[in-house]
Specification:
heterodimer, A: 7-stranded mixed β-sheet, about 50% strand, B: about 120 residues, mainly beta, 4-stranded antiparallel β-sheet, about 55% strand, globular
Chain lengths: ~110, ~120
Amino acid sequence: NAGVTQTPKFQVLKTGQSMTLQCAQDMNHEYMSWYRQDPGMGLRLIHYSVGAGITDQGEVPNGYNVSRSTTEDFPLRLLSAAPSQTSVYFCASSRAGGDEKLFFGSGTQLSVL
Amino acid sequence: AQKVTQAQTEISVVEKEDVTLDCVYETRDTTYYLFWYKQPPSGELVFLIRRNSFDEQNEISGRYSWNFQKSTSSFNFTITASQVVDSAVYFCALVAGSSGYSTLTFGKGTMLLVSP
C-alpha cells in the first residue's frame, strides 16, 4: 500500500515555464488537497477536491490549476511559474473530507529561478 | 474565519525535560476539529491526534498528552521526558464545520529541538 505518492521530489524551473506536480493515492480517498509550505508560514491550502470532477479553491489558489478526473489522481499545474511559487508542496488525502485525518505525500521541493 | 496561533516559534530543551507546545484557536463554529501533526527533519508530515469540539477529555498516548480547554480556546501538547527523536516541527491545525468541504487551517508551527 503506497499511500500518497508525489512526483517529482525536486524540480527547478525558470520563470515563465509550466509544469505539473503529480499526486496519486491508492486508498480510495474522496478528499484530496494541495498545500504549500513556506518558512514561517506553516502550510497553506492551494486547492482541494471532495471527489472526482469537483474542485475548489483554498487560501492561495492564484497561479495554480487543478483537475480531478479520477478518484486516484489530483495533479497541480503551474501555468507560468514565478519566483514567488518557490516552495515545498504537499499533496494530502483523506477518506471523506477536510475534517478527517490527512495522509500526506512526501513533498515536492520546487525552485523557480 | 478560522485561525490557529502557535506563539512559540522555537523551543530548545535538554533530553528528559518535559515540554509543552501551545496552540490557541479561533472559530465561531460550535462544531470543529483540532489536530496536531509532526514534521521531523526528514520532511514528511505525520498525524498525531484529532479531537472534536464536543470532547474535552484530555488524551494521553505514551509520552504525549493533549490538554483541550474550550474556555481558553487552547489545545496544548505536552511531551513528557523528551527524547532527541522528538526534534521536529509541530503543527496545530483546525477545521471548522463538519462537511466534506471543510478545510484545514494550520498554525505556523513550533520547532522543537531536543539536545542530548
